[in-house]
Amino acid sequence: MTAALAVLAAAACGGRRPVIGVVLPETGVASVYGASIKSGVQLAFAGLAASPATAIAIEFRDSASDPTRAAGAAEALYRAGALLVIGGATTAEARAILPMAEKYERLLLSPSASAPELTRGSPFVARVYPSDELEGVAAADFLARLDGTEAILIVQEDNDYTRGLLPIFLAELGNRGGRVAAVLRTDEGGWEDRLRRALARGQTAGVYVCGYGDAILAALMAIDAAGFEGVVCTTSAINAAPFLRRAGALAEGVVFPLAGLDLAAREEPARTFIRRYHETYDLFPDTYAAHGYDAALVAIAVLEGDRPRSGAEVRRRLHALRGRRGVMGELAFDERGNVQLELRLHEVLHGKVQPCVRCTAGGGHVASPVEVTR
């Protein structure tokens, strides 16, 4: 589905309104992430009505979870005059859109793609989601501190996302003295049986599940069927509300690095975002909705005032945003376009995502979820 939304906030100074394009997977395999991100983006743009100095046209396009379609939609938006596209919800879609951003010298602002190389070679990309360089290190540091000499069993979904994240995790785990028992890929037949046999040997300190939501759920079901009661760590991709609802008790005690959203936050704009989100959708937001909201805040901020004349000017304005806060923290970007957010370990405890108290750094025993609940 293709949707368009024009948001006009009272009298703008003359000239054609700047356009923000939004290309997200509203349908297809990544639609869980796209729907959540879009809900946050729409909420931020709805707030433009309260701004007397901003007139911006917003154009939404559905990538259908197809990188080629995402690239085509983004190119059409850039060609039509969009100075900035919020898009690339997945690493694969961000990689596909980036050549279009470079071709038209316009900015691609990703709400959730995390592959490190995305921001290494182009001045026309930025992201409000932490790089895998942070997530891989945090997960490896945690698992390397588990007691005993047993190794870590890895379950990998093979895609662009994990091909960027897993090497970082493996390198950091090795640097910290951790060992790998095996890497089981979910696209290979019989991986569940091999996982069961590996866990039955009783020589696994923990399991690291590297993938997106559906693969994480499949791995959690296999781990549960094997009767494993040790530590399970996964990626921040689990933290989409529909996946957590589907996982239910299977997610209990699962640990993952996250730039967390505090639903009890009293600071602005987080407090107002959480209240308005609940009033609008009758739901509490997950972190993907929050990152979508922050991406929209950044897009609005760099286009407000005099219309930018080029993508390079949009980029300069992005780097001048220091001191502004978003829902997830300060909207400050490094020279490569990476947002500067701190990751912390979280876990699902009693059905809710919260900071992982048993995961604190500094050595010592890391309790298993079974020990915590006894």
Describe the structure concisely.
This protein has 374 residues and is α/β, with parallel strands linked by helices.
CATH-level-2 architecture of the largest domain: 3-Layer(aba) Sandwich
Q: State the CATH class of the largest domain.
A: Alpha Beta
**What is the H/E string?**
EEHEHEHEEHEHEHEHEHEHHHEEH
What's the number of extended β-strand segments? Answer: 13
SSE layout and pairing:
Layout: E1 3-8, E2 19-24, H1 31-46, E3 55-62, H2 67-79, E4 84-87, H3 91-104, E5 107-110, E6 125-127, H4 132-144, E7 151-156, H5 160-175, E8 180-185, H6 191-200, E9 204-210, H7 213-225, E10 231-234, H8 241-247, E11 255-258, H9 270-281, H10 287-303, H11 311-319, E12 344-349, E13 352-355, H12 369-373
Parallel strand pairs: 2-3, 2-4, 4-5, 5-6, 7-8, 7-9, 9-10
Antiparallel strand pairs: 1-3, 11-12, 12-13
Helix pairs in contact: 1-9, 1-10, 2-3, 4-5, 6-7, 10-11
Characterization of the model:
The chain is α/β, with parallel strands linked by helices. Helix content is 39%, strand content 18%. The protein is built from twelve helices and 13 strands. It has helices at residues 31-46, 67-79, 91-104, 132-144, 160-175, 191-200, 213-225, 241-247, 270-281, 287-303, 311-319, 369-373; strands spanning 3-8, 19-24, 55-62, 84-87, 107-110, 125-127, 151-156, 180-185, 204-210, 231-234, 255-258, 344-349, 352-355.
Describe the structure using short key phrases:
single chain; 374 residues; alpha/beta; Rossmann fold; 2 domains; four-stranded parallel beta sheet; disordered N terminus; disordered C terminus
